[in-house]
Amino acid sequence: MASFTTPCTVVAGVVSQKVVYLEVDSGKRVEEPVGVDVESAEPRVDREFLSGHVALTSFGTTIVKAVALGRPAYVLDLGGLRPLLRKAVPTRSVKGREFGAWEQVWNTPIFLSDKNPTVAVGASRAGALLHINAVPSDVELAKKVWAVAGVLQKGGALTLNCTCRLGLMPVEVTAVRGNRYVVAKFYLNASSPRSRKVFFIVGEAGNVLQRREVDTAEAEVTAYEFLKYIESP
Known about the structure:
Layout: E1 2-5, E2 8-15, E3 18-23, E4 29-33, E5 44-45, E6 50-51, E7 54-60, E8 63-68, E9 74-77, E10 80-83, H1 91-95, E11 103-104, E12 110-111, E13 118-126, E14 129-137, H2 139-152, E15 157-162, E16 170-177, E17 180-187, E18 197-204, E19 207-215, H3 219-231
Antiparallel strand pairs: 1-14, 2-3, 2-7, 3-4, 5-6, 7-8, 8-11, 9-10, 9-12, 12-13, 13-14, 15-16, 16-17, 17-18, 18-19
Helix pairs in contact: 2-3
C-alpha cells in the first residue's frame, strides 16, 4: 500500500509486474510488486498532460476521485463492472484543481482490465493521508460480486463497500430490510486462498442469526437461501 499526504493527485500504472505510483506535485514515486502484468501505461507527468493508466486525487476527508488515462479501467459498484470515465488530463488542470468531472471512487475497487489477469486498485482516506492499495485480482470474481448483489437487492436496500486498504481487499454486499440484514463478503486479492470463498451473515438488530462460508461457485445459490431470512416476517 502506498500513502500520500493530501491534497494530492497520483498517477498509477503497472510496469513489469509492479504497480507504480507517481505523485504529480512532489514527484514522489512508489513501486510495489503485484505479481501480474496487464496492458497498462507507465506513469509520467509531462508538461502538457498526465500519462499513465489511471489518475486519483483527494482533497477532502471523504473525497477520492479518479479517471482513466492511457488505458481503459473499470469500476465495480452496484452498476456492475462498468467503465471508469476516461479523459485526457492537462497538467495545468491538476494545479487548478479542476476535478469536477472525475468520478468519486472512495473505497470503490478499480480494475485495470476487464479480462484476466487483472489488477484491482482501491483508494481510501485516513486523516490527512490518501492510501492506495493494489492487488492481483480476477474479473470472474468481480462478476460474481455483482451477481450476488443482483440477488440480494430483492431483499432490501443494497450497499457495496470495499475496505480497500486491507491486503485481502474485502468487498461487502449488504441488503437491509427493517432491522434484518444479509452480508456477503468477498476477497478481491486473487493471490490469497480466501478469494475462493464467500462469507455470508444474516443478522437482526445486531445479533447474528446464521453464518456460512461457501465456495464462490455456490455464492448465488447461498444468497437466495439467506434472502428468505429478511423476506420472512
